[in-house]
Amino acid sequence: MKDIPVGFTAGRVIKRIEWAQHLFSLVVEVPANAYPSPAFIAGQFSKLALVNGQGEWVRRAYSMVNNPTLKKQNLILEFLVIEIPQGQLTPLLAHLQAGNTIYVGTQPSGFMTVDEIPDSAIDLWMLSTGTGIGPFLSILEEVEQCQKFEHLVLVHAVRTKEELVYKDKIIEMMKTYQGKLRYVPIVSREVEQGALQGRIPELLKSEQLSAAAHVTLTPEHSFFYLCGNPNMVHDTRDTLESMGYQKHLRSESGQFSFENYW
Ligand SMILES: Cc1cc2nc3c(=O)[nH]c(=O)nc-3n(C[C@H](O)[C@H](O)[C@H](O)COP(=O)(O)OP(=O)(O)OC[C@H]3O[C@@H](n4cnc5c(N)ncnc54)[C@H](O)[C@@H]3O)c2cc1C
Ligand SMILES: NC(=O)c1ccc[n+]([C@@H]2O[C@H](COP(=O)([O-])OP(=O)(O)OC[C@H]3O[C@@H](n4cnc5c(N)ncnc54)[C@H](OP(=O)(O)O)[C@@H]3O)[C@@H](O)[C@H]2O)c1
Prior knowledge:
alpha/beta; Elongation Factor Tu (Ef-tu), domain 3; Rossmann fold; 2 domains; seven-stranded antiparallel sheet; five-stranded parallel sheet; 7 helices; 20% helix; binds flavin-adenine dinucleotide; ferredoxin--NADP(+) reductase; FNR_bac; FNR_type-1
């Protein structure tokens, strides 16, 4: 066996969840002492690595879907993955089952966290496509921290209804948040009752998103995190700018920030 790369630890898959063909979650346990305390901030990502058929390490970034959870001496990390058939790592991840070894980065990072949001934000809009919903589910698990927002709007855009993952968890969270959390599913390539159809930028502009969430958009109150498909991020940025919102920088407060998945 090759040496584990610096900055990685050996973990074990303890559960696999099948959502749809090519779409699955892996629950992984890693030794907690390989991580700082807290191990990560909700919304951050780590890395997963495996050795490919040529004996080379392949490593890629994956967001945690959960918040830092300890089980005895172990840290539990959950990842939502879509298999890219021509990709290097995801076809290897797609073969993993409970009991298999996976190598996990020990230095989680990323700035799409609640503490990066300016204090002026009253409503937090979390706009995601595909597996980009992951970091938002992690953030929403930090219930106490999220109570400071008046509304939390979770928008999840997918191609087909079977890709609307973690519905049961979202329903539980909606109960916990007692009306504060609004969930707006979007299915772009099928008609699905209770979901919008189309794409995030157009649905924002036409005010269908705000109508579905029953939350008013204003540059004074709204803050947006965008996550997932870089084309969605690009088009949504353009739309938000045309609506009078600005990119948030630490040096200059704005109303949106984003994470591209590829
Ligand atoms: C900060 C960050 C967090 C991420 N979190 C997640 C996550 O939680 N879950 C997850 O599934 N992925 C996530 N990704 C994407 C992940 O890192 C890999 O890029 C992805 O899994 C593909 O890896 P691969 O080795 O199979 O494909 P590669 O061999 O790297 O890529 C093959 C081709 O597919 C394109 N591609 C990469 N990802 C996608 C995608 N999702 N959809 C369409 N085309 C794509 C690439 O541009 C490339 O041209 C994240 C990426 C970043 C930067
Ligand atoms: N989803 C699948 O069935 C499937 C199956 C096997 C493999 N894969 C692999 O997984 C990759 C990622 O899949 P994914 O389902 O997460 O794909 P995706 O192409 O990122 O689609 C997710 C959602 O983002 C929307 N979207 C795409 N471009 C957009 C833009 N410019 N602006 C706003 N919204 C936009 C899509 O709408 P539109 O539908 O209008 O494009 C869809 O609703 C695929 O590229 C493929 O390689 C996917």
